[in-house]
What we know:
Blueprint: E1 6-11, H1 15-30, E2 34-36, E3 44-49, H2 54-70, E4 75-80, H3 81-85, H4 87-91, E5 98-100, H5 108-114, E6 121-123, E7 145-152, H6 163-167, E8 171-172, H7 175-187, E9 192-197, H8 221-230, E10 236-239, H9 249-256, E11 264-270, H10 274-280, H11 286-299, E12 304-311, H12 318-330, E13 335-340, H13 358-381
Parallel strand pairs: 1-2, 1-3, 3-4, 4-5, 5-6, 7-9, 9-10, 11-12, 12-13
Antiparallel strand pairs: 7-8
Amino acid sequence: MDRKVKVSIATLGCKSNQYDSAAIEDVLKDNKFSIVKSSEPADVCIINTCTVTGKTDYQSRQLIRKAIRAKPDAIVVVTGCYAQVSPQEVAQIEGVDYIVGNPGKDRMLQYILDGKRANPKIDVIETAKDKPLALRAKGSSGRARANLKVQDGCDNSCSYCIIPRARGVSRSLPISAILQEIEGLIANGYKEVILTGIHLGAYGLDLNPRGGRRDARPANIASLVKAIDNRNYPCRFRISSLDPDEISDELIEIMAGSKAICNHLHLPLQSGDDNILQAMNRRYTGRLFIERVDKIVSSIPEVSIGIDVIVGFPGEGEKEFLNTYNLLERLPIAYMHIFPFSNRKGTAAAGFSNQVDVRVVKERCERFRLLDKIKRKKFYENFIGKKM
Length: 388
């Protein structure tokens, strides 16, 4: 194949998926391929998909079909979480050449070199426990902000979530390797690095204790952040998302005393009702969430706290909804990401009998959106007249 082949990469979903696409882009650039925008003519179309909700499944299919219609002669490679979980659905879309699960992303170059196919080839296997985070992005796009995936996979079993099936067990990159990558990103001109992962709060739990000593303390997200902060790098760092029970006092103390770590945390609350949280198989209560937010705000007064909330989880009546609404109304959060419950085949919650009417879910989402506008406005007003 001509080494001047044009490749477009379209990406849906989380920062980890964005990181994977950036890493694939780097591999292709190193092999003399030309990376073009999805709207431009291309010889190869890579679609890196998402499956976190039914809506993102639909968006993934839309993006695949759009690429095939626009570039019928192109090699079409579908990868990512939707490809991993539902490869047979992808195979039904005429024009797809390769369906590559998440573990196969580091073999992307070989599939492109193999060329078009009469029938799609499916490369989808379960992620091995010892599968290293081999696909690494060098950060050569020229942007100011870089995602840095330090962890992948998830060992939790939240009843609504399909992502553990898509990403496999939790795996972490050693701190030494992370520091080396940060130095490379800084050398390439990046001014901000976002630490990201599928379950970032589980960072390090799969690694051996530091230095290999039996009595050494295992790595965790706090020790990683501390190691980064101690280096006095000439850039800032942002923590992407942590569960409420993973925000330790140690981490808060490190952030409060740091000039490099952004005063920002994103917490996936999902619900403020304890019965719903239990049905979701979450590991905290509404009270713990309040206590953690209060601790964060008292230690880092200008902190920006964002939250995720799922609306209409099975069993959510008006009482349960108001427990969540009232909790969020009283807390000094900066913004909200609002998700209607998505009934995902293959999850425990899909079999729950007490599903919530879609019209009720829509109305509750709108109430949360109005609260979100109030919260954002109030947060912004806190900084009027201040030098940032």
